Every structure is written in structure tokens, then in C-alpha cells.
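Suppose you are handed a protein chain with no further information: no name, no annotation, nothing but its sequence. What can you learn? This example shows the usual starting point.
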Amino acid sequence: MFFLKIINFFLIVFIICITIRDNLFASKINFFSTKFNEVNVRNGPGLNHLLIYKILVKGYPLKEISDFDNWKKIQDFSGRVGWISESQLTSQRYIITIVPDQYLFKFPTNNSKKIAFVQKESILKIVKENEGWLLLESDGVKGWISKKSVWGLK
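A reasonable first move is to predict its three-dimensional structure. Written in C-alpha cells, the prediction is:
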């Protein structure tokens, strides 16, 4: 009986250690955005790799998948994957809308006054986060939108 208690104790300690280790070393999802109006996306980390496509919008949100030297392997909201030099990215936070025909609201509630119409795949700068809502800005207009209708959040 005593032997079973010792085995159970060590089993519990083992499970706790694995859980703590997994939480400490879990990969953190990072988002970046393009720093310039023209950014090259390549099929590998380095200027000698093939140019796959160009992103022609400043503030385009991208999810980091991995990194190598001064290069980030990224994914965009449509699932395209490639490599971008870190010098072309910024940690300034932007999102892209993924739901068609959204509105920015004056306050973080659907019953609030609608202040702007937002088309699908619009890029907006994050000003503030609230539970379930984001205060966004574009061209001097600020308004709230539901987090469920955007891509680019951690």
C-alpha cells in the first residue's frame, strides 16, 4: 500500500513537471505588420531566395511562424507563407477585417451609433483593446469593432 502511494506521488509530480515545462516553452504567437508600402516575400530566408510575391500595403498584418537570423517566416490571413526580412517589419499592431460589410461603432456595443462602414479585408490600426472589442483607427476615423470579425490578434 505504501509503495502504491509513493508511485502515485511520483506520477503526479511527473505530470505537473511536464505541464509546467510545456507552458513555459510553449511557442508564443507573434504578429507583425509591414513597415513600408512595398515589402518582398521570399520562399526562403535570404536575398538569394526567389521572390514569391510583394505586399503593397503599409501595416499589413502577418503572423510569425518561425525565424532564422534576421528573417521571419510569416503567414498572412489567407494562409500564404513566406519569408520577410525583419527590417521590413514592425511590431506596430494592425488587423485585417475578415467579415464582409462591418461597421465601426462609437462605443464597444452593437447597439451603439455606427460611425463608419468597413469592407472586408480592410487594414486598420489597433488603438486599444477591450474585452471582445477593438478600438481601431484609419484615416483619422476611430471606432470600435468586434474581435470576432478581424484577423491579426494574439
